[in-house]
Each structure stands twice: as structure tokens, then as C-alpha cells.
Amino acid sequence: MRIFVALCRKNGIRPYRYPRQRRTTVMVRVRQSRFERTVAEEFRTLHRELTGYFDEMVEHLIADVMKSDGDDETLEQRRLPG
How many CA atoms lie within 13 A of 29 on its CB side? Predict the structure, then answer.
């Protein structure tokens, strides 16, 4: 949310919210072509980078800090009672 708002403001787009809208709702009034060229494109790029960074950090924490592999494919199989 904060990245989206920052990108809007960086590109001269003023985000807003109507009264009683949730904090997770952000509105913008801009032509779709301009929005796609500026905010949406940069947001997708940042999202990919942040997701990759987050995945790397999780792998590091699991492997190096917790000394585990965290692989859910190797979970023990148990039978249901009954």
C-alpha cells in the first residue's frame, strides 16, 4: 500500500479515499494509459524485486539460521484416525 501511494505521488497522481472507506482502499483519478505507463509498470517491477528479495531472505533464515530445509514435500505422511 505504501509503495503504491509513494509511486502515485512521485508521478504527480494524488491518491485519495472517500469517507468511511477502509484504510486498504486507495483511489486515483487518472487516465488508464498514463497510469499503466507510469505507476502500474513501476509497481510491477518493484513487486517482482521485493518478492525475490523476500524469498531470498526466507531461504536464508530457514537454511542458515534455523538449520533446516523447510521442504514441505518431505513431510511425514500419517493416516487419518478411524
Answer: 3
Summarised one tens digit per residue, pLDDT across range 25-50 is 999 999 999 999 999 999 999 999 99
Domain ranges of the chain: 2-68
What is the reported pTM? Answer: 0.69
Burial 52-77, CB ≥16 within 10 A → b, else e: eeeeeeeeeeeeeeeeeeeeeeeeee
Q: With CA atoms as reference, report the closest residue to 26 among 44, 8, 47, 45.
A: 8
Distance set, CA 39 to CA 9, 17, 24, 79 (Å): 9, 18, 18, 50
Instruction: Report residue 23's pLDDT band, with 50, 70 and 90 as the boundaries.
Output: very high
